[in-house]
Amino acid sequence: MSEAPDTSARDIEARAADWLMERQDRENWSAEDQESLDVWMMQSPAHEVAFLRLEAAWGRTDRLAALRRPDDARPVFPFLLRIAAAIAIVAALVAGGANVFSRPGERTFSTPVGGHESVAFADGSRVELNTNTVLRARMTTQERVVWLDRGEAFFQIKHDAAHPFVVMVGDRRITDLGTAFSVRSEASKLRVAVVQGRVWFDPADKQVPAQSAMLNPGDVATVVADKMSVTKEPTRALAAGLSWRRGVLVFENTALADAAAELNRYNREKLVIADPAIASETIGGTFGTKDIETFARVARTALGLRVANNGAEIIIFR
What is the radius of gyration, based on Cα positions, of the chain? Predict the structure, then answer.
């Protein structure tokens, strides 16, 4: 008989810890025990994520090795083992909110304005960095965590249930469940779009009330001013949003101001829509990320607008 799903984050983490220690301590762990654990994990994605995260933390705890006899796979001191497990669990719970610049083995990847870089990790995962992006990564045999400090990245993750791939963005956390997805972080907006697989999107700090969501293919989660919304986008729209990977931007009935702002992300010279009355006029087409002059010519010929170039800016007006 299955248990009712736990609801609070604290209850979920505590129950996951109980399951982990029961499985480790019990010599006669049976198929029925494993089935009960599987049922609990299937009740909610939050259950699965919590258990996998704590299991990975358990594996990182060096104390466990010291508590084992060379000739025996069982712990010598169960009480001390529980202390070690508690240390691992506490570390796992607080790691999400920590800003750890001094960790050994951490690497930083960055791109300039207009830049594009692809990073391949030893586990088979790949990350593509878009323009003006900073990403820090800590990839070990026991931990896979990256911090997107600024910009946009596309993730293609080699799934490993025992070692979830986690993306930290400010006070939010994205946990891979076998996935290809993009994350874009701006000053006041966070956008997560899932192309393949699933991700679990939740707050990094369990003490801060925030929405959590399981995101499936086509789901786009947007966070603005701590308010989250989830929408469904067709494959065509998702592909257009990732066209930067090919060095182009695809606009389809896009407001002139929005299209200009998108191109400005990739260029030192900026497009300026000087007349508010034309900001909502729409434009379409495929433009290279550096083709702001081509964009200006299309605005002039297709929309009948005027264009002036002062060297630092291309000004578009009626």
Answer: 24
